[in-house]
Amino acid sequence: MINLDQFNDDGKDENAAPVRLSFIVHSLQLCLRDGLKNGVHMRKVLTKCKTLAKFSHKSSKMADLLEDINKSINKMNVTRWNSEYLFIQSILSIKHTDMESILPSLEYPVKFKNNDYIILHEIIYILDPFYRLSIECQAETVVTASLVVPGIVHLVRHLREPKKKVVLCKKRVEQIQLSTEKRFAGIINRLNQLNVEQDDPFNDPL
pTM for this one? Predict the structure, then answer.
């Protein structure tokens, strides 16, 4: 089992050596890309969301409807997965009853089924710790092992125990877990007291 006893209560060690930040956030992005790229049902739901977002930014009527309920839909940047997280959050912030009144105004109306909402909530649940860790890393001038290691441990625990929260996206969780354990193999193998290979990513001493 992964052991966090080597860290203090706040998970930080001022004497910890800097981690190679050149691809820490990029590696998080790749883990998610590996796990989410083959999610057919998830992509269908996101296509509906994109249709809604596109119309909301070009239709004054749609903009007025959103303004009436004090909501807006974030734009999604295809090169930044964080924007996808915030984009879905903005969709889910709209009440179902409000959404039902908005959707008929679309040029090409779409309908969100109950399972669509379940998938969106599960995506947010899956992405949330990745989003928080990436934001924390980007906020630091120097990222140390004492920041990264507890974060990676939390991600692995989060992905291993999703049974109560994830129903429709379990396969995606499994794929993200496999990718995370591969792309951060140096950290995970060292914490599990396994051999760390020279070519393992993040194989620096903790």
Answer: 0.81
